[in-house]
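Before the break, one more example. Copy the sequence into your notebook; we will annotate it together after we see the structure.
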Amino acid sequence: MRPRGGLIAAAAAVLTLGAGLAAPRAAVAATPAVPYLDWPSLLPALPSPFTPNLEPDCADGSDTCIDRTIVDMQRRLDTVVPVCDHRAVFALAYLRVTEDVRAGRRAGIFADPAWLNREDAVFARLYTDVYDAYAAGQRTGVPMAWQLAFDSQRGRELSALGDFLMSMNAHINRDMPFVIAAVGITRPDGRTRKPDHDVYNRRLAALYTPVLKEVAARFDPTADDIEVGPVDDLAAAAILQSWREGVWRNAERLVNAPNAAARADVAASIELLATTIGRTLRATFKGDAGSRAAWCAAHGGQNPAAVTPAGKPSAGDAAAKKAAAERAAAAKKAAARKAAAQRRAAAARRRAAARRTAAPAAKRKALAKRKALAKRQAAARPRGSAPQPAGG
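Here is what the structure looks like once it is written out:
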């Protein structure tokens, strides 16, 4: 168990790695004892050109997009992520955040809800894409920040809070700038969309207390151990705001890059930042895998209602186990297809090498034939006669 107040020190260390970093946590109450300081909204957006939405997800900006995303997130939590797997922590937290984004949209807090719906859809798709790619053994194309998160979760290295922070870092600090830049940070009339980005900070700051309490109840009782009162509340809110402010500024850098090379430099800096934070978090939030697994087994993990009186998961997790078996079978088939393709490629290389080897031999054989023919012709000529020139 981490000492009380330890998260502030850890988060402060992470903050020193670069602007816009934060480690969200469960200390911000829904009714905080300290005033909420909405400083990001006081910072103006940088002048940025209008860029059209580049992503196909939710192109019409319909309200039904986020509904479909939530249904899919719940399905994946229930049937794709194995029961008590360390990746389940973020899957649950992300579902709760997305549900709250929808509640905020319904409450009318966003000036451009269609833009918010598109951003949410693209953001969720990036997560499911990297999750599925990594699960299938395809590390190529999976950002390093995500590889660090998934590697630590597969190895059951960290506490639930550590798993949560590792995935939050990868999805926010790495993914989010690219998503916001792709869906557009400026309206066609030139107005910035930063207010719709900033307005969610207050709701998000208040959300982590109930989310991490739920994580603690289901997966790891240490997830919400850290609580040192209103000072910690204010620090956590400020850190979270700084994190999201940095995300927006990185999106502006991507959009305003003057050429492809400059944009690549910005992208590389985003990747490096998220990777560095991930390494720091991985070294900080170590956990007790055995105790955590026992707690999760006794409390149902993804499905607390499936716990039997004996304190063990019942048949309610059968769908998740079946999904895991199906994924393993699919991965095995994919590996077999890859091996077959490699064998075909190797055979093609051998044939090409054989052709390259045969070509000189054929040339030597043809030359030998020409020499033999010339020798026979020379032998057939009368002695003292000169060879006739061609055509004469």
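Residues 318-380 form the longest helix (63 residues). The chain has a mean pLDDT of 82. Try to locate both features in your own notes.
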